[in-house]
């Protein structure tokens, strides 16, 4: 195992900060000195030479600790992860802590939530849907196609005739203009719908 060096730890910290920009702070803790030895993109009001306080953390055996969350000095949320570097004899040498400020992401989430639709009521407005045959027909046709792995706008003749027959048997086509509506759904003429019904009925009669 190569010996971790202070220069390598600092170069790693600088590279991570350079890649991810100003919202990421990377801190190198010298565990022998129990001090902060290097900071790239400082944003946590800490300085080089400050106590690390790493003795308060159970480093364990895993080389990676986290991700975990903590609160920054200004109340913002940081998502953090720490990388433990050991010497060849197994003793801990450095910890590289990567702190990602979540402020921009949380702001985007709030914007997305504000622009999103209002939450649905827990109870469906059955009084509105009860007599809306369009919704009932849409639900039936959608479920029928989904169960068979088909698309409503790409049905072959045989599948279309089966669907039309089942819609007719359920009474869905009894509504005024229902046949024209179904014709638009499946991409054929209303006359084709009636021909499908006729062919279906003649087939059932044989």
Automatic annotation (TrEMBL):
It comes from the Bacteria. Keywords: Plasmid. This is Transcriptional regulator DauR. PANTHER family: TRANSCRIPTIONAL REGULATOR DAUR. It comes from Sulfitobacter dubius. Pfam families: HTH_22, PAS_6. InterPro entries: DauR-like, DauR-like_HTH, YheO. The gene is dauR. Residues 11-109 form the YheO-like domain. The keyword Cytoplasm does not apply. Residues 137-198 form the Transcriptional regulator DauR-like HTH domain. The keyword Cell inner membrane does not apply.
